[in-house]
Amino acid sequence: MGWVSTERNHDEQPITVGVIDDDPMICQMMRLILEDYSSGRISVAFACTNAADAIEHASHNPPDVVLADIAMPGMDGIEATRQLRMLPDPPHVLILTSLSPNNTVERAIEAGAEGFVSKTDAPEDIIRRVADVCEGEPQFNPASQRQLIGDLHQHQPQSRRDEARAMLDALPEREREAVILAAEGFTNAEISEKMFISERTVKAHISSAADKLCMGRVQMARLVERADLPPRL
After folding, report:
1. Which residues contact 219 (CB under 8 A, 6 or more apart)?
2. Are 92 and 19 part of one and the same domain?
3. Which residues carry this modification: 4-aspartylphosphate (predicted)?
4. 128 lies in a domain?
5. Residue 160: band (very low, low, confident or very high) from pLDDT cuts 50, 70, 90
């Protein structure tokens, strides 16, 4: 099998991942992809066929990332995401789906998901999404982003727009700038170049803003979209 670097040093602990899918074959396939294609740099902590068991595992041994199937009997991926994100040490959650994300993007974000992974993605793409979300990079494909932006602009009460702008205005100028650039889709490296600061400082600005707003990076991006800010000169 192929190998994909996750850009982690050899002396670092592997990224731990949990998988939830009601199809045991999908669980097995994802375990093989995550462990074999990452050359051991990703370790599968658990692979469960129902959300309740996965949440139990995650509450005792929190993984770094959970891949949660969107459509499952009983508790679906959205509710599982919500409960996982409420844990004392919450994992990053990526929605695992073979379906188009239509009608699920906004619900997934509200529950705390940070992106989508398609079961039909190439193994190297799945590995990269898992590694990148650990670095704070949301994993929404362009179609998902366009849908979310369109929905927000179509259903945008003036009061919610003003509230979002007020929340952003309350941030220090450099934190606000970093949050806005991240919401526009720029990576930490690209933001550092635009703001003439280190990537570490970019991460510090975004982390500080997240603490002040009590939001994750994806939720802050949604806040920026809701604010519907005028184009920057």
Report:
1. 109, 112, 213
2. yes
3. 69
4. yes
5. confident
Are 66 and 89 contacting, i.e. CB atoms less than 8 angstroms apart? no
Q: Using DSSP, how many helices (H) and how many strands (E) does the chain show?
A: 11, 5
Report pTM: 0.62
Residues 24 and 98 in one domain: yes
- Give the domain extent around 86: 15-142
CB contact at 8 A, 31 and 44: yes
Conformation bin of residue 7: beta by default, left when phi > 0, alpha when psi is -120 to 50: left
Q: How far apart are the first and last CA of the chain?
A: 48
Q: Which two tokens stand for residue 232?
A: 């920057």
Question: Looking at the predicted structure, is the pLDDT value of residue 117 above 50?
Answer: yes
- Name the β-bridge partners of 19: 47, 67
